[in-house]
């Protein structure tokens, strides 16, 4: 069964590139543009990972991560990897506080993205 990943990113360019690269590795990708859409998807089905942009309209990544962690059921424990162009604005502690497992700085290095996705989706 392929692993299902949510890519939450308001930039279509980053969203499409990420989707293309991860789809080639047999991941099933759902793309959304804001945090509210992430929560909507997680209420409907289970996913393996959320790649979460921090700066998005409607609901940003930090608030979205907090909401995910307070959800009932399995999805509250889903790994969350933040994608951010402003990593300097946050420390790893800030991310951990809201339940984010790791982060990838922008501009994205797709080798890092793939490595991170594999790290959090491989069944060990």
UniProtKB/TrEMBL annotation:
Coiled coil: none annotated. It comes from the Bacteria. Gene3D superfamilies: 3.40.50.2300. Pfam families: Response_reg. One of its GO terms (biological process) is phosphorelay signal transduction system. It comes from Ekhidna lutea. Residues 4-121 form the Response regulatory domain. The keyword Phosphoprotein applies. The modification 4-aspartylphosphate is found at residue 53. InterPro entries: CheY-like_superfamily, Sig_transdc_resp-reg_receiver. This is Response regulator receiver domain-containing protein. PROSITE patterns: RESPONSE_REGULATORY. Keywords: Phosphoprotein, Two-component regulatory system.
């Amino acid at each position: 069964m392929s692993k299902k990943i949510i890519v939450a990113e308001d930039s279509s360019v980053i969203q499409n590139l990420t989707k293309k690269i991860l789809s080639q590795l047999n991941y099933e990708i759902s793309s959304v543009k804001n945090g509210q859409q992430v929560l909507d998807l997680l209420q409907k089905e289970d996913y393996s990972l959320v790649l979460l942009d921090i700066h998005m309209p409607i609901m940003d990544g930090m608030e979205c991560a907090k909401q995910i962690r307070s959800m009932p059921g399995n999805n509250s424990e889903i790994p969350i990897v933040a994608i951010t162009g402003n990593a300097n604005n946050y420390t790893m502690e800030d991310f951990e506080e809201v339940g984010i497992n790791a982060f990838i700085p922008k501009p994205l290095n797709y080798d890092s993205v793939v490595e991170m996705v594999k790290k959090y989706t491989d069944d060990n």
